[in-house]
Amino acid sequence: MNGVEGIYIAKAAAFIGAALAMGIGTLAPAYGQGLVGAKACENIGKFPESAKDIRGALVMALGIIESSAVYALLVAGGLIFVGYSL
Question: 73 pLDDT band (50/70/90 cuts)?
């Protein structure tokens, strides 16, 4: 294997890594957001008088959960940048 083939392998590995980072890195946040939303709807149904407080906690929790998906996006973007700069 010469140097040119090694560059192509490194580029392919960077792009595959970016795809895996986005694919796997967004599964757990999506599942977590679904669970949090379901529990919030359930509790608003049980305690409609505290819907405002539950909604505030829901928005805060969704923001925290979404940050891990944003980190996966940043990692994937970095890998794509490295792949194109090789």
Answer: very high
